[in-house]
Specification:
Blueprint: H1 4-9, H2 21-36, H3 51-59, H4 71-80, H5 85-94, H6 103-110, H7 124-127, H8 137-146, H9 152-163, H10 167-185, H11 189-202, H12 209-228, H13 230-240, H14 245-257, E1 261-263, E2 275-276, E3 282-284, H15 295-305, H16 313-319, H17 327-335, H18 345-350, H19 352-368, H20 398-409, H21 422-428, E4 443-457, E5 463-470, E6 475-480, H22 482-488, E7 497-507, E8 513-526, H23 529-534, E9 582-583, E10 599-603, H24 609-620, E11 623-632, E12 638-646, H25 650-660, E13 665-667
Helix pairs in contact: 2-12, 2-13, 3-12, 5-12, 8-9, 9-10, 10-11, 12-13, 13-14, 16-19, 24-25
Length: 668
């Protein structure tokens, strides 16, 4: 409970232990490999120059690989084309806020595309292994000894100063370092100071090499297992993420990319966890991951299965305890396809009460010993109770079955509701994965399945909505302002298929670009089965707009409640044929995007409650994206940014001017 400094002063050692789920994934993968592949692997003895593993790194196929699965890291791996373990260590250390700027040079120097330079010949011994680029703490410690004449103790003091970002201590050490480089190695003072400046920048987030090597080794182990035993590794990975449906969706997509089929649960093949189907490139969904089916239920099924596989529904009902596997568990297993090899899901659901009644009766009789009365009479076998399934009068649709999978597994397994929409969406929309920050402010048309709808009441009492939209590539948020929501709100329900047009917004509250990209909709159209049947393919794939220059400001919303619209102006894009369910129209040409400005309101008398209330009421009618700042007092002594935003339109400015006067409202 004491901080590190106090513990050190007491002469004790403080240790931090990092718990990594990746170690559990590795352990589970080794267990699966031993059971399915009959191979026992000792990670300590696997070669660090395995060709198959480096080929995986070079392709950037590192989803699930420790530390190396971000999009940026995958791109750098494809460019670097690592060939040795030191390359992996370097990438783990370089992909940090401090040294990240040197990654491109590191890659070019490795491939001989950029000259390897050293600020001073005396730095060659410490930086040669990383092509003249400072990557590790150990390197500047070595440089301080070889180049600046530091003792081991001084080098460690430097490490502490840089590693802990202790600016005061660094300033003290700087003098000794620069003087030492000049005296020991004859370096120019300017060169030593330049190296020191780089060192300070490096201090933003620097690794020691031993730390990076430990991380790199775990990265290598996970990549080795994925390269050589892909099914076992992915099963272990999905078991670890069984409660995280977003991660599971990514991992199932990765399985498809690897040629591995992820199958629905099956009472004869599934286990508690995700399991490899021996001899096949297939993974069975773990039964415990099904909602309504706990570990206890699965353990009872596995206990009964030890006697042999279930021959059918009747056999399952006889052998599996009705006390441990209740109706809810039966229902969930049926709906997710766990009995598909035995009977149709609709028939099973229609006969579920009959099946359970049969199971309960036969198990009670077995416990009471009644069946033993005729046990030795072969002639009585024909009167043993059986269960006959009555065909369901109405069969469930494919869409209903997929909805069950989504509800109970968290994602679609056997198919995807948008499978029939592939051609339509390729030609009429841009995939969600391509809606990225580089097209901020551009007009875009996207489409997909509504996975959730969140509505809010605005301060003016109107409704607006935030949709979570997903296609087969990604998911995104769509914002629907009140005027458009009034037209389409009733039809925006979960699992509806829609096409949405609007403007891309990738800015945070301060106007900075970020990865949280949204679409501000000005038109929504439902895509129903009839439109899909009548749609005639044109063979032309819709492409995303070209990226514009990155600027440090947001675009101004032109949304005005009360107008016939609510859309956002911008570049025009040809719209798909067919009228929209809801369309935000504008009188005249669409307004051009402007720099987002703030509204400054000078309130000379902060005690004037009437004026303040009128300002608040007017702003409530103009929601938007511009900050509003109240500047208080005759001498503008203080300012307050209001906890809401406005659209910054001329109309709002005009109304505020009427309240406070011509010189009291500024838009800038």
């Amino acid at each position: 409970q004491f901080p590190m400094g106090s513990v050190e002063e007491l002469g004790l050692l403080k240790m931090d232990f990092l718990g990594l789920s990746n170690l559990t994934i590795i352990n589970n993968a080794l267990r699966i490999i031993k059971k399915v592949n009959k191979v026992e692997i000792d990670l300590a003895t696997i070669p660090l120059d395995d060709v198959k593993t480096y080929e995986l790194f070079q392709r950037g196929d590192t989803t699930g690989v420790f530390q190396l699965e971000s999009a940026g890291m995958k791109r750098y791996l494809r460019e670097l084309k690592p060939t040795e373990f030191n390359d992996i260590i370097a990438m783990v250390a370089l992909y940090r806020p401090g040294p990240m700027q040197f990654i491109d040079s590191f890659i070019k120097r490795k491939h001989g595309e950029e000259e390897i330079k050293f600020l001073d010949p005396g730095l060659k011994s410490s930086l040669e292994s990383t092509y003249g680029i400072l990557v590790y703490q150990e390197q500047f410690m070595q440089a301080s000894k070889d180049w600046a004449g530091f003792t081991g103790g001084q080098a460690d003091t430097l490490r502490k100063a840089v590693g802990k970002k202790n600016i005061d201590l660094m300033r003290k050490v700087k003098v000794d370092f620069v003087d030492g480089a000049v005296k020991t190695s004859g370096a120019k003072k300017e060169t030593a100071e330049l190296f020191w400046d780089q060192l300070e920048e490096f201090a933003n987030y620097c690794f020691n090499k031993s730390h990076a090597a430990c991380y790199g080794l775990i990265s290598y182990w996970t990549a080795y297992l994925k390269a050589h035993f892909p099914e076992a590794f992915m099963a272990a990975l999905m078991t670890s993420d069984a409660d995280d449906t977003e991660r599971l969706a990514i991992e199932i997509t990765e399985c498809k990319h690897m040629g591995i089929k992820v199958l629905s649960p099956d009472v004869n093949e599934s286990y508690v966890e995700f399991a490899v189907v021996p001899g096949e490139k297939e993974i069975r969904f773990g039964m415990a991951a099904v909602k309504g089916v706990g570990v206890g239920v699965v353990e009872e099924i596995l206990r009964a299965r030890e006697e042999g596989k279930f021959l059918g529904i009747e056999d399952f009902a006889k052998r599996v305890s009705t006390q441990k596997v209740n109706k809810k568990a039966w229902d969930s297993l049926i709906k997710t396809g766990a009995f598909d090899e035995m009977a149709d899901r609709s028939d099973l659901l229609f006969n579920l009460e009959t099946i359970q009644g049969f199971a309960s009766k036969i198990q009670k009789e077995a416990l009471s010993g009644q069946t033993d009365l005729f046990g030795g009479m072969a002639s009585m076998a024909s009167i043993q109770p059986t269960v006959a399934l009555t065909p369901a009068p109405v069969k469930h649709t494919d869409k209903e079955r997929l909805t069950w999978e989504r509800e109970l597994l968290g994602l679609y397994i056997s198919a995807h509701p948008l499978d029939n929409y592939d051609a339509y969406f390729q030609e009429q929309t841009v995939p969600l994965v391509e809606m990225t920050q580089d097209i901020d402010g551009k007009k875009l048309t996207i489409g997909g399945l509504v996975s959730s709808v969140r509505t809010i009441i605005t301060k003016s009492g109107t409704k607006m909505a935030f949709l979570k939209l997903e296609d087969k590539t990604n998911e995104a948020e769509v914002i629907i302002f009140p005027n458009l929501y009034e037209q389409v709100g009733a039809k925006l329900v979960q699992d509806a298929v829609i096409r949405a047009s609007g403007k891309v917004s990738a800015r945070d509250r301060d106007g900075n670009l970020n990865s949280d990209v949204k679409l501000i909709a000005d038109e929504i159209q439902l895509v129903d089965d009839q439109e899909l049947r009548e749609y005639e393919s044109n063979g032309r794939k819709m492409v995303k707009p070209k990226a514009g220059p990155v600027v440090a400001v947001r675009k101004k919303s032109t949304y005005k409640p009360g107008e016939n619209g609510g859309g956002f102006g911008g570049e025009t894009q040809s719209k798909p044929a067919g009228p929209g369910v809801g369309t935000s129209t504008h009188s005249g040409p669409p307004p051009t995007a402007e720099v987002l400005k703030k509204v400054y309101v000078h309130v000379k008398n902060p005690e004037d409650q009437t004026a303040l209330m009128r300002i608040r009421q007017e702003c409530a009618h103009f929601p938007g994206l511009s900050d509003i700042v109240l500047v208080l007092g005759p001498e503008k002594q203080s300012a307050i940014k209001m906890p809401f935003r406005v659209d910054g339109s001329d109309e709002l400015v005009g109304r505020l001017v009427k309240i406070l006067g011509e010189d009291a409202v500024v838009l800038k």
